[in-house]
Please model this.
Amino acid sequence: MNLKELSDLLGLSPTTVSRALGGYPEVGAETRRRVRAAAAEHGYRPNRRAAALATGRSMAVGHVIPTDRGNEMVNPVFADFIAGAGEVYAQAGYDMTMSVVSDGDEAKAYRQLALDRGVDGMIVHGPREDDPRIDLLRETGTPFVVHGRVPDAPLDYDFVDVDNARAFRRATDLLIDLGHRRIAFLNGPAHMDFARRRRDGVKAALVARGLPADPHLMRHSEMSEQAGYDAAREMLGNPDPATGFVVSSLIMALGVRRALQDAGLVAGRDASIVTHDDMLSYLANGRETPLFTATRSSVRAAGRRCAEILLSRIARPDGPPVQEVWTSELVLGASTGPIRD
Amino acid sequence: MNLKELSDLLGLSPTTVSRALGGYPEVGAETRRRVRAAAAEHGYRPNRRAAALATGRSMAVGHVIPTDRGNEMVNPVFADFIAGAGEVYAQAGYDMTMSVVSDGDEAKAYRQLALDRGVDGMIVHGPREDDPRIDLLRETGTPFVVHGRVPDAPLDYDFVDVDNARAFRRATDLLIDLGHRRIAFLNGPAHMDFARRRRDGVKAALVARGLPADPHLMRHSEMSEQAGYDAAREMLGNPDPATGFVVSSLIMALGVRRALQDAGLVAGRDASIVTHDDMLSYLANGRETPLFTATRSSVRAAGRRCAEILLSRIARPDGPPVQEVWTSELVLGASTGPIRD
DNA sequence: CTTTGAAACCAAAGCGCTTTGGACGCGCAT
DNA sequence: ATGCGCGTCCAAAGCGCTTTGGTTTCAAAG
Model:
């Protein structure tokens, strides 16, 4: 059933039917009622592609999710971010189209989605240093919002980010307050913007308290359980091992805890862990008392917010940039305690 | 730059340009070269929506990912499945459009995607008992492939599944062989098809060896770390506690291990765990020696395969159903050992 | 009684592409 | 010469919708 058929059926023109359904004012109340009833009865659903072609708006937004080229890893936070964003899109009648591309080939994917006019706007995930995507999108005039921030770009775009530097500074401060002096930092991939900010935060805390920032204790790696384990294990093997661990994700923290256990140590007693917690749905940080002491911020909420901002940006392309830096909460859990010995 | 502009520029008709680019034979070699060169030079990219409207094919496939209504949980295996499928789509020039919907509202999402002709085909995730989606898609004539199987539907559709029953029977057998008699089973949500099959497998093993299937030791829950922890903790509190644990996902198994540790027990020595491992990229099951003894099968590979099957189904709607049941590998890891005491 | 204007509706022109059904020219067999 | 087939190319008709620019009707205003 298409517009033409429906309008023939009703003895009306396609124009009127389209308008009746679209809620435009220039159609009589009774007529609108009839049209609506007929549409419902016959299960008429406008063809979205045709509408898209006619209006120039596709009612779709694009996400491109990168998969780390080497290890083929796909960041698990995507699932929750997408879930959050998806709620908003569904509500607003938007579709979400995603491309999965190998890290680095992203430019192509962005071009494809943005330029082929496949989408009305895009979300930029995981901005990196000197990220070419911002310029690309800016040039093509595609509305976009960044989840995170781009280091050195002019700050005239929309973004939602967490206060990475501040959060990690607080995390480090906490460990220092507890008496830890050898503090390890297991960070995400070096080229990611959030990793840089977190590094800055940790360093700032160390410097402020007159502690050295031992490069051996600072690691960049993918954020997997295994990577957390490997790094922690190695660090524990050193003479004068770390007693405090600042970790970039809960999943890595699980690996760190495993390494501690293998070494016969108990987190919260023999060593302390502070991690960032994205509040992933399938990986709750304990129930009543948190498993890990953590700086936390819901990535799902961020997804929701990014989507909201994007949709309103699409509606009003001009207007001041919406820029939000979310303060992450510091929750005390079972993984930290005063240093002892 | 659109077709018309490009063809004007070349002094050709849109027809010829379209054909030259599309690789159709009725265009001269030299002309084709010129057209291609001009297209590349001016960065011409056909508008996909217009092409979709003209051809009736949208070059997009739909995924609807459900989020558990109560706990808002989104299954983490999606990330990897999507990544696998996405590779195939990208290769073939297909888009992937996803809807995130609350568990149960899925019918609406399927109808929207399928009927509004937004997509050429769909993947059905997480089939449940008496799943209405199959009929829905069948009626609308939308090509689809199921990741998993639907219990009582006629088996005339395409699917890729793992041998849940067999894998879990083997897992249980292994524990029994190791001397375990009190075997707990932490399963996924009861209404999921895979959970049913796994239950059947576990029960079959128990029955075959003359062991009782104690309902107190069989749990259905969401597959989170926390749920694994909670269930295991409770079971360990019982008099005559379980010594063997069959677990439905690696992430739950982490919870079980944590519960064991809290109880002062070591997995592989004081109690044994066998889990299913979906080989998620960010949650490797150890490096050389697996952390957990596990039945394993790559969900990412399944995603790839489902996508391949779907694309060829779209190309040839008729033809015999493609049905694959993948045998999962049983790998021995550090989490199992002979019973002792 | 004419004018004006609002209300309700419609015809037709796109949106940018694909594809059908020719048209045209040329070489070859008839 | 005529006809045929083939290789190249093109005009135009859609695909299903939205939207511009009307037209018609009718009541109120002048």
